[in-house]
């Protein structure tokens, strides 16, 4: 494995009006995106948006930065925010 800067752009995205996973209940609508990291890796992740943001305004090509969401079991999941 190798380190990554945690920056990239949105390759594709989809707004989820209903939770596809029970752990996302209460967070809808939320955005799932394919992120192209600057190092050339493509990964799937959620976008973290401000509460007043329109999830339908997220666009392909938008620049993003990684953040980490703490899980109850101690793990941390990568979640991206738009710059």
Commentary on this structure:
The protein contains no helices and five strands. With 83 residues, it is mostly beta strands. It has a five-stranded mixed β-barrel. The termini are far apart.
Strand order of the largest sheet: 1-2-3-5-4
Shape: globular
Measured distance between first and last alpha carbons: 26 Å
Poorly predicted runs: none
Tally of separate helices: 0
Mean pLDDT: 94
Give a concise summary:
By secondary structure, this protein is an all-beta fold.
Indicate the topology.
Blueprint: E1 7-16, E2 30-37, E3 42-47, E4 63-70, E5 76-82
Keywords:
five-stranded mixed β-barrel, globular, 83 residues, mainly beta
């Amino acid at each position: 494995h190798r380190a990554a800067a945690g920056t990239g752009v949105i390759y594709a995205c989809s707004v989820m009006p209903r939770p596809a996973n029970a752990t996302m209940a209460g967070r809808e609508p939320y955005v799932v995106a394919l992120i192209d990291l600057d190092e050339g890796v493509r990964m799937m992740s959620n976008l973290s948006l401000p509460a007043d943001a329109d999830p339908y305004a997220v666009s392909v090509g938008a620049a993003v930065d990684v953040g980490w969401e703490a899980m109850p079991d101690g793990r941390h999941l990568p979640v991206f925010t738009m710059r």
